[in-house]
Amino acid sequence: MNLQQGGAVHAHPPTIAAPEYAMSGQDFDRVCEMIRRHAGIALNPSKKSMVYSRLARRLRATGMRSFTEYLDALEGGGPRADEEWQGFVNALTTNLTSFFREAHHFPILAEHLQRLRARERINIWCCAASTGEEPYSIAMTAQEAFAGAARSVRILATDIDTAVLATARSASYRDEQVARVDGDRVRRFFLRGSGANEGWVRVRPEVCGMVTFRQLNLLDTAWPLRPGFDAIFCRNVMIYFDKPTQYGLLRRFAPLLNPGGLLFVGHSENFAQARDVFQLLGKTVYEVNPGAACRLTSRPGNA
Ligand SMILES: C[S@@+](CC[C@H](N)C(=O)[O-])C[C@H]1O[C@@H](n2cnc3c(N)ncnc32)[C@H](O)[C@@H]1O
Question: Is any atom of ligand 1 closer than 6 Å to the C-beta of 238?
Fold first, then answer.
């Protein structure tokens, strides 16, 4: 646009490209309802353009001509619909994460691990692991806490999104993703790529070996898990869920934790409404309320 000061404005109206697909208010409401029911994710109207651009890719990939046709096909069932449900979910999750995000949690975890050092096995569940930076940061903290001898620590890392889990399993990241990680840690825990892998780093095998990745939807009514976790990291995911869903999940976490086990949550997550289940220790770290009816009182064998 050409603005001439003090004179006439000679401008062409900006060209606004017509959207490739029309998304009606009804289509958007339907998307919100479907993702809420399936994954617990509550979207609000401010997310409409994000939803449009992410799902337009799915329409292109599946050759659908409209949102209505796409959503009808998803709800219609059948093998192709079952497969596309995963594409739909992967498109709508928000996967922002980083190494040592919310860094204040890691010294607390290190102290907790030190207290458990005599144990044969220490189990940690990271239940919204995204692309892997969080579970690998937990594993690195364990390596540091046990001076490299952290063989007893096992981390189960789960997420609903299969695409992020594939990245997590590859353990490969762009250099920029470790730019803010302490230099000693980068040297100790990552291999630097060279030649065709220039610009990439990979988490070292001794750290990768501590982490197992699996798909798990927190909304599933049955989780294939046994109790016996010493810590659960559930950070920056419950924020997408409504209060009753959060409360229901907290009640299911409590019996999975060993006595003294810790729950780490995101900085903007507050579970004051669930004081009967978890009590705040400080810095968004919780422990099971000793009076909670659903707590685990003895420690069965770990998975
Ligand atoms: C913003 S990321 C947080 C990643 C990491 N926990 C952190 O704090 O850096 C949220 C993650 O939760 C996952 N997620 C969303 N709904 C989920 C559900 N119902 N079950 C399991 N994971 C879910 C998303 O796929 C995404 O990877």
Answer: no
